[in-house]
Amino acid sequence: MAISQKVKKEYFALVAELNKHNDLYHKKDSPEISDQEYDQLFKRLLLLESEFPNIKATNSPSERVGSEPVSGLKPFNHQIPMLSLDNAFDDKDLEDFEKRFLNKLKRKESYSYSCEPKIDGIAICLVYRDGILTRAGTRGDGNTGEEVTHNVKTMKEVPIQLKKNKDYPFPKEIEIRGEIYVEKKDFLNLNERFKKEGQKVFANPRNFAAGSMRQLNPKVASARPLKVFCHSLGYVDGNTLFDSQSSVIKAFQSWGLPTCPEISLVSNLEETKKAFSKIAMQREKLVYEIDGVVIKINEIPLQQELGFSSRAPRWAIARKFEAEQAETKINSISFQMGRTGALTPVANLEPVKVGGVTISNATLHNMDEVERLDVRERDYVFIKRAGDVIPKIVSVIKEKRSGSEKKIKLPSFCSVCKREISYFEENIPCLEILLESEFSEGCYGYDQFKESLKHFVSRNAMDIEGLGSKTIDALISNKFISSITDLYSLDINQLLSLEGFAEKSAKNLIDSISKSKETELYRFIYSLGIKEIGLQTSKNIARELGTLENIIKTNYERFIQVEDIGEVAASNLVSFFTSQKYLQILENFKNLNFNLSNEISNNQESHLQNKKIVITGTLNSFSRNELKEVLEKMGAKVSSAVSKNTDYLISGSDPGSKIKKASELSIQIIDEDELSSFLQNDQ
Ligand code: IVH
User: Fold this and answer.
1) Closest CA to ligand 1's atom 12
2) Between the CA of residue 464 and those of 5, 453, 510, 513, what are the distances in Å?
């Protein structure tokens, strides 16, 4: 099935955004978003790529592990790629990791896990020939990094010559990988000094370490307190000497290489969770920054059997910490009017950095949340940025109260137009400004209309590109739009009179508005912003009632029969579709020649959409044809031969040669006893 424009747009925007942040992080050492935010975007990218394998862009960040080297330093080619690690954000992700590799191993095997702090520094590889440090390189794009031997040789912690040890004779050539970092206190002291001297300050210790390594002049690195923890092996000359990760660490120690003291060996997944919690508790006290715990299968033969995907080993995963918290003060509280007439309290904060990003306001969601937290103006609070972009207030530091804090009260009327708040709730959705002259910027009525417009043009609604918050402000304040349908009579000269528009952007916006007239019925219903009518409910309405004309004629008894619709949603629909005001707006839409189609792809949400699946062997629960039909209904493509493009091989008894080929190509194999959970996406 073709990939929708919407998905493509989201996907390519994500690729561009992630590449931009990769660049800022790796080349410029000055990130603009936190790691958590990056991880969140990356997770979404991986999801889209797994749902739509054909979409993958050649410049997708999932194909790369870092970024290409910056010029100036010599390139350093890695004999074995320096890869990244997959992330786990919760226990479930860890359990999935274990299931994945067990599924791949296809047999019971005993194994243990090495749990190691994930050092927030920069990856380095140290090449020792006959025990002498000959070269050092950064990761770069995983294949080619930068040669930084001149800088690494200035680091006191890195031995120029390895110590001899009879238990661990070092091979002729060995590449040791680790992380260069700087201790928290050193980072703070130096950054403070740089600030005073007017030099570049660094966002975090990792950027500091990276910036120090990326110097042509070794004097800079030699003057900085850089340290290293060695954690893994790269290329090793001859046969591997080691049977486990713990013996690798022991060998490093015996050779005089620094290793992280907080590494522990555990015997099952439950214990990795405990090890993670333990390290999380110690985090604050550790002298170095960490951003998670790396969990590695300890047995090297198993590691070798599992191998690598294109970007990460299958035998290790990084269990990441939740977002960081920070302490700050609430300077004041303001209220934001939403399109449904509800006011959201927002805390205006004393700006504070969390995970490298400056935060100056946080949402309090609603008055229940204000009460639950007992938060007041001028309180000191802890704030948190989780995967989500909007920062949250976690708790109030009551011990810091001075008595001057002010309780937060919901305003009872708009301070500009003086209308009571109930007016805005009753007049929802606000698809037009009724008393235009009385609404001006800063007024709740203005905000409500603006939010309605933003919702109307948003991606899941009418999907009109190029209408951001600023443009909407300009359109309203210039009185180009006072009702939602005015959007469709905008002309190019009006747009050209606004700041920021040129011929091309103005034309694109007009095209995008006009294109939106051909859309699916469910999007149009959703775009109206009727309270309680979300995207899924809009789809249900469109599917069951078919046309806008039908919907307008539908009564309460019929609405309530629509899937997912309860009493409140049904009565909201009835009040909307019986209101003279809204019927007039719908009439205006009709006169604009909207063409609302009623196609909803039910396949879209299946986890097997576009997956290429091969069936082999004899199955008990299905005939091959029956299974093929089921899979195809779920959007999968069933083919007869295994190739590198195959996503899954479903295998019954007596599978034949396909299973061998699938294992060689590292294709996931699903046995009959896993089939039902596979079909339900419950693996
Ligand atoms: S093992 C194939 N162990 O995290 C990668 N990596 O996000 C195996 N890192 O490139 C690496 N602490 O630079 C390993 N204890 C640790 C680590 C660690 C930090 C870095 C490493 C890697 C990156 C992946």
Assistant:
1) 118
2) 12, 11, 9, 6
